[in-house]
Amino acid sequence: MGPGGAKIITTITKIHPNFAKEQSPSLDFFASTVYRAYNPTTRRFFTHPNRRLVDQRSGRGFGAADRTGKIISMQTFERNTGMLKNRCPGLQELSYMARNGGQFLTADASERRRMQMQGWNEVAPIGMCVRQMGQCGARSPLLEARKNADDFIYMTDRGEFQKFLAKNRDYRASPQEVVCWIW
Questions:
Q1: What is the pLDDT of residue 32?
Q2: For the chain, what is the domain count?
Q3: What is the pTM for the complete model shown?
Q4: Segments forming the whole domain that contains residue 95
């Protein structure tokens, strides 16, 4: 019993004892869905793991959200930092930057600094990803296509990506193409 006789409820998540000790097992269990929405008026895409934030964009002309993969959300990472870093030392922060209504995602600190010098504002980290395929169970590439300096789209399916590029000739694959690997 807690103060004033209130019943205290404790939630315990049972995790296998080796779960926090083994390096590089799949982190799929911790991954959250990433959503992508498109605004036909502004012709901009918006990608984020927070469904509420994506849905708020829907009220401003963005269409229904598509699921585009999974990442370790910042909320999950912050709650389980020690264990996740121990299991997957290669986790990288995926940052969300904005400029002129466009969105840019990066997992590279030097690229983040370069984009800030070009006028992009770092809004917040949106989650964690890895730099190599298969690391910690990540098998989906976060692919990036650019239309111009402020217009990017992100996908995880190579077939969809190639069809999109063939249909939308004003977009081109970014030089690095894969931002990072997700689940």
A1: 86
A2: 1
A3: 0.76
A4: 26-182
